[in-house]
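Co-fold these.
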Amino acid sequence: QKEVEQNSGPLSVPEGAIASLNCTYSDRGSQSFFWYRQYSGKSPELIMSIYSNGDKEDGRFTAQLNKASQYVSLLIRDSQPSDSATYLCAPLRGNNRLAFGKGNQVVVIP
Amino acid sequence: EAQVTQNPRYLITVTGKKLTVTCSQNMNHEYMSWYRQDPGLGLRQIYYSMNVEVTDKGDVPEGYKVSRKEKRNFPLILESPSPNQTSLYFCASSNSGRIYNEQFFGPGTRLTVL
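Predicted complex below.
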């Protein structure tokens, strides 16, 4: 099993719709989880962090965590063209080490 | 302005010619790390440092060296670069010892080894 798995393939959503991104992880010891956004050719930037089971909302973003199922997701509401990017799921391992998924590309269609 | 800087931003070199990519942060962070990013493989950690004089291997350390003589600097050294080290490299830093632990990334260095 891969350490971090994210849905394959780009996700195309119409402007104003909800984009839903999923991520599963294998390390049951992970306690903190991060979602990074990366525009093409740019560095990753943190958009959400979550470390308790349940939902966490921040503006148009909602992160959901289920440690029992080893599952974390990100919802982007009212998607905008500026949300077109690759979203990286990153559980925190021991020694402050992040394990990154390969990312989900989101394309918001005006 | 709080930031992580990397130099150079772009580098084209030839096989075997030693090079160093510098990384510096002004946030007094204990933790620093180097990643490489390749299409289809995502971000992979090369080396990390928990504090001055404390470094350890990440997931893909072969062919790389690092040092941490000062808290703010964490250079990445390629003693004998090879074409398979052509990649986009990111340096990152964060505070240590906290559950919430945002890693700040530098702008990236695009390296091509011919």
